[in-house]
Amino acid sequence: MTLLIISPDYASHLLPLATLGTAWRDAGERVVVATGEATASIVESFGFERAHLQLGRGSNPGIIKAEDQPKGEDDALRGFFAATRLGMVETLAFQADARKNDLLWDPVNTARAVQRVVDEVRPDRVIVDHLAFSARLALLAHGTPYADVVLGHPSALPVGGEVYGFPPSWPAAFDPDDAALAALRALCDDVSASFTAEWNAALDGLGASHLHSASAFAEHGDLLLYNYPGELHERARTALLPAHEFIGSAVRSEPVDAEVEEWLAASDEPFVYVSFGSFLSVRGDVLARVLAALAGLGLRVAVATGSADRAELGELPGDWLVRGFLPQVRLLLRATAAVNHCGNNSVTEAMTHGVPLLVLPFSTDQFAGAAALEREGFGVSLAPNTATVDELRDGLERVLALPRARLDALSASLLETPGRERAHRRLG
């Protein structure tokens, strides 16, 4: 049997998808990953074959910087970073407007490249990142069944009266103006209509006009695999979902890091793990306030600074572990609490190890994810642009005081049946 995994050239997307593939690999099956050159080393580290496939202009091997991106993509990334400094609505509006150009990159030619990969690999099962729209378009036109992996809050696939890009719920710390929200909703509706027109035009170019969609953002695979714990999802919304499986989390194995092991062995004192991921670590101003709040609590800290300017963070305690990149899964195994941007990998990996969260959402589905954590009592959310050092310190103290019973039960469930096993059991 052959499993084909199709992923954008982004480490944060490929790592969970590749982790799912290890269930097939360990069962002695062939696994082929179709992705770009930037993440080739990740594919190799899992022991998979790689088929070259470029699904977009940009790439991210682990830490993303605007200056490392191709012309055009670099300015788009700088624009996004600038929008995050303005606020929630401004960021979501920037992202909505950008979707007019970046979700279907050269769709017909890209789709044909995907179809060539499928014809060459001849897979028995196909797993695709939900955000790889050109790949899913290709498979639809090709008549190839596939499982659709939603890496993010489930609202990445809108249902009911939702529209893509407009969060169905908000954390308590955010109180956007009604008029601004109405304008954002209108923009998202407009983008959804234009995206659907572009999707259908690409189907025309592929000779599949009979497959035209009324709402391209609502299109999905034969089976949805949500990389998200079902325990965090509202029951009323679950009832609206197409055929699906909540796989919980795709927690990867990481190589032993001698420096990290030495730091962990040096003390049994509790510590907090901090990371804003590969994109949003550029917000060194927010990271600096978080670290100042932690310094005031007297806790040990492990912080992945990513692309933040180290000088912006100031002088940090000598017993902290400070590096550009850290093995997140290993540290969450021991952390008492964590601070992050509410990205999908960060949340699901923290939940797997029962780590309560202080989240500072910046964009996309992070707001809905933060609202879910608050609702279930697994975390506290604050606004990254306005939270003061004192408010961050208070938020951290509230996180450390959260009740443990339900979080521990969720962790036990996710550890008992990992996401890769749930996916393999459902797909076979």
Automatic annotation (TrEMBL):
GO molecular function: UDP-glycosyltransferase activity
Secretion signal, residue range per the UniProt entry: none
Record-linked Pfam families: UDPGT
GO biological process, one term: antibiotic biosynthetic process
InterPro entries, sorted: Glycosyltransferase_28, UDP_glucos_trans
PANTHER family: STEROL 3-BETA-GLUCOSYLTRANSFERASE, STEROL 3-BETA-GLUCOSYLTRANSFERASE UGT80A2
Name this protein carries in UniProt: Glycosyltransferase
Organism of derivation: Conyzicola nivalis
